[in-house]
Specification:
Largest sheet: none
Strand content: under 5%
Mean pLDDT: 77
Low-confidence stretches: none
Distance between the termini: 38 Å
Radius of gyration: 16 Å
Length: about 90
């Protein structure tokens, strides 16, 4: 894979059926919302996934690894604390 276009054309980047529609609906739902509202919604969904058994510790770790480099030190610590709190939910 040399670039995103070849990635998509080779089929490696296929989204599950209906995922694109779900992303569009989520984006519309968050229009005009503040950071705190968005974070609460994300946490609520993650919590629901943990309780349903569909969100694993490994997936939480992967999320943290992917997202944390975008944050400064204080926000990274806060995200890490949230991830640890989510890991305790069963």
């Amino acid at each position: 894979m040399k670039d995103f276009d070849s990635f998509a054309k080779e089929g490696e980047g296929k989204l599950p059926e209906g995922a694109a529609d779900a992303v569009r609906m989520a984006a519309r739902a968050f229009e005009g919302k503040g950071e705190a509202d968005i974070l609460r919604a994300i946490y609520k969904e993650a919590e629901r996934g943990r309780r349903a058994g569909t969100l694993s510790d490994a997936e939480l770790d992967n999320f943290f690894a992917a997202v944390s480099p975008m944050f400064d030190g204080a926000r990274r610590k806060k995200l890490e604390a949230v991830i640890q709190k989510l890991k305790k939910i069963r």
